[in-house]
Amino acid sequence: MNGQGDATATTLHLVLSAGPRALEACRARCEPGDAVLFLDDGVNRLPDGVPGEALPDGVAVLFSWPDLEARGLGEAARRLRLETLQDHDFPALLERHRHCLSWK
């Protein structure tokens, strides 16, 4: 499905829900080179452990900083040294991936 090393063939996965089905569906479709962005209620997966640990190797794991802060998870994200992004970073992230899938 994804071309080896071809960033234009990668997928950005948006995990919008804290429910286990969203992450399981996302995990089933992730491939190396893809990125997973936890945002909206998806950031609430953080207290259960770092969600990206269950994803395949080579998948970038990102968190929406405004959504973490809004849910009181900013300090936990800092302690875990999670990669976060601001809302204004989102367009550039979208440009780096050919496909975008949302998981609820």
How would you summarize the topology of this molecule?
Elements: E1 11-15, H1 20-29, E2 35-38, E3 60-64, H2 65-70, H3 74-80, E4 84-85, H4 90-95, E5 99-103
Parallel strand pairs: 1-2, 1-5, 2-3, 3-4
Radius of gyration: 13 Å
Determine the N-to-C terminus distance. Answer: 23 Å
Strand order of the largest sheet: 4-3-2-1-5
Summed up, the domain count is: 1
User: What's the total helix number?
Assistant: 4
- Indicate the percent of residues in helices: 25-40%
Please identify the top-level CATH class: Alpha Beta
Query: What is the structural class?
Result: alpha/beta
Q: Based on Cα principal axes, name the global outline.
A: globular
- What low-confidence regions span 5 or more consecutive residues with pLDDT below 50? 1-5
Strand content: 15-25%
Order of helices and strands: EHEEHHEHE
CATH topology descriptor: Hypothetical Protein Ychn, Chain: A
Largest sheet: 5 strands, parallel
Please tell me the CATH architecture by its name.
3-Layer(aba) Sandwich
Counted beta strands: 5
What do we call the CATH homologous superfamily? DsrEFH-like
Mean pLDDT: 89
Describe the structure.
A five-stranded parallel beta sheet has the order 4-3-2-1-5. The protein has a single domain (7-102), classed as 3-Layer(aba) Sandwich (Hypothetical Protein Ychn, Chain: A), CATH 3.40.1260.10. 28% of the residues lie in helices and 20% in strands. It has helices at 20-29, 65-70, 74-80, 90-95, and strands at residues 11-15, 35-38, 60-64, 84-85, 99-103. The longest helix has 10 residues, at 20-29. It is built from four helices and five strands, in the order βαββααβαβ. By secondary structure, it is α/β, with parallel strands linked by helices.
